[in-house]
Queue: 4 jobs
Job 1
Amino acid sequence: MSTQNLKSTIENLQAVDFPDPFVLRVGADYYAYATNASGYNVQLLHSNDLRTWERLGDALPQLPVWAAAGQNLTWAPTVLQRPGYYVLYYTARFAAAGLQCLGCAISESPADPFHDQSTEPFLCQHRLGGSIDPSPFVEDDGRIYLLWKNDGNSCDLPTGLWLQALRDDGLAVEGKAVELLRRDQPWELPLVEAPALVKHEGRYYLFYSGNWWESADYAINYAVSDTLTGPYIKPHAQPWFARREDVLGPGGQEFFTTPDGQLWMAYHAWTVPNVGYPAGTRSLHLAQIAFKDRQPTIKIT
C-alpha cells in the first residue's frame, strides 16, 4: 500500500517528535525522514515549500528478519537517490547480537514504503559496540560514500566517526573503513555522533553532534579537511551551534540544497520548555547555511 493513502496535514510541527531528521529534495518536493516515533519505524513527511508538511506514514513499515521491533530501536534514517530507485540507510537493533547496526532498504519512490529483505545487517562493527547514524555523501565525481558512528558509548568503548566507499548502486560497501574523528573536547562528553559531510570550495566540512542527546547541552560542531579521508581539524573548542533561548539541545543534523543552490540544514531540538522524555519532544527545525571566510554560518528561520 502506498503511503500516499495515509496522508494527514501537520498543523503544529513543534508538537511532533521527529528526531534525527533527514530531508531529501526530489525536484520541487521535499521528503523528511526521522527516527521512530508515533508508532512508525521510520517517520515520513512531505512538503513542497518547507513550511507546510503532511505525514505520509511509515517509510519502513516492515523491518527485516534480523531487526528487533519496538519503540526507540530504529534510528537516524537517510536516503540516497540512485538511477531509478532510492536507498534508505537506517539504524536498527540486531536482535541476535544485541547491538544497534545499519540496515539498507530500497524503494522506487521516496514517498512509498522501502523494503529490506536482508537476513543480516548491512554494516555492523561488532567489536566496537555496533554502528549507528548512517549518512551518505556524494563526491563531485559521482563516487558515493557512507559515514556513520561506532556505538562504543553503549559498552564503555571509544566512539568514532567513520567513512567507507559504497558500491555504485549504494547496496554494498567497498574498500576499508577509515576513522575520521573522535571525541577530544570537554563539551563533547560523553560522545560524538551523527556525522554529515558538506563539501565547499574544495574543502570538506564534517559536521557532528556532541554531548548527550537527552540534554539541553547537546550541540553541533564541525571539523575541516582538505582531503576526504582527513585528517580533520576542529577549528573551535566550543560548539558551532549550541542551545539558545528557543532552541534546546540542537543536533542530529543533515544537509540538503534548494533548487536555487542554497544550502540548508535539517536538525532536531527539544521543544521549549521540556527537555528529555517522556515530557519532551525533539521537533524538526530548518536553517539556512552560508559560508563566510571559509567558515559556515547559520541563519535561523
Job 2
Amino acid sequence: MGLGAQLSVTDLRRSSRHPVDFRLIAEHRQRGDLHLHIVNLSAHGFMTQGGDMGLSRGERVNIRLPHIGRIEAHLIWLSGDRAGFQFERIIRMNEFMGLIDELQPNPRLRNRR
C-alpha cells in the first residue's frame, strides 16, 4: 500500500453530526469484508463503534450507503473501540438529507435544517 491518505480534517470537525444506528459491511482491499456499526454521520465522514477492525490510520474502505451508493472512506483516527472515517468526497446536501431521513427516521434526533 502507498503512503496512505493525505487528508486534512481540521476544518471538517465542525460539521453537523447526526446520530444513527446503522450496520453495514465494508470492503477492504486486503482484509476483505469488515462489519461496521456507524453511530454518527456527517456530509464529510462517519464514526463507528465496537469491534476490532484491525486497521491503521490512512487505510481505506469502500461502503455502500442509501441515497449515496458506493463511496470510499479513509480511517482518520482510532480511540478504544471507536473510529473516525473521512469520505473521499463531500456528499451533496440533497443526497445527505435523503440519507439522514432514511437512517434517522425520528425527526427529534435530526439536526435542524
Job 3
Amino acid sequence: MKTYPLHVGSLVRAELYKQNKTVTWLAQQLGIKRTNCYRILHAQSIHTSLMEQLSIAMKHDFFIDCSSQLKQNAN
C-alpha cells in the first residue's frame, strides 16, 4: 500500500474552506500578514506551537487530524 506524506497545510486549508473562512480572517486571528498565512497553507509541516494557535483560532483540533492521517497511512 502506498503511503502519502502528511501535509499539514492541506489539512488547515481544507478546514478553512469547510468553515467558509478566508485567508484574511485567519491571518487576522493569528496576528500575521496574509502572505505569511499562505506560507502556512502550503507548508508540509509546521511547528507544534503554530498548530496550537491554528487549533485555537479555528476551534478545531488539528492534532487529532494529524494523528488520524498517520494511523491511516500506517495501515
Job 4
Amino acid sequence: QALRQRIDNIEAFAADVTHELKNPLASLRSAVDGLERIEDPGLRRQLLDVVRQDVLRLDRLVSDIGEAARTDAELARAAFEPVDLG
C-alpha cells in the first residue's frame, strides 16, 4: 500500500513538473521565433525580456525540483521514533 502511494505521488509530481516546464518553454520558443522576424528594436527588447524572465523561471523551477528531491531523499532515509503524546 505504501509503495503504491509513493508511486502515485511520484507520477503526480512528474506530471506537475512536466506541466510547469512546458509553459516557459513554449513561451521561450515563441519569443525566439519572433526575434527572427521582428525588426523593431522596441519589440525585440520586449521579446528579450520575455526570454530572460522565462529563463529565470526555469532556473527557479529546476532549483525547486532539486530541493524537493533532496528533501524526499532525506525523509526516505530518516529514522523515525515513536513519540508518547500521553
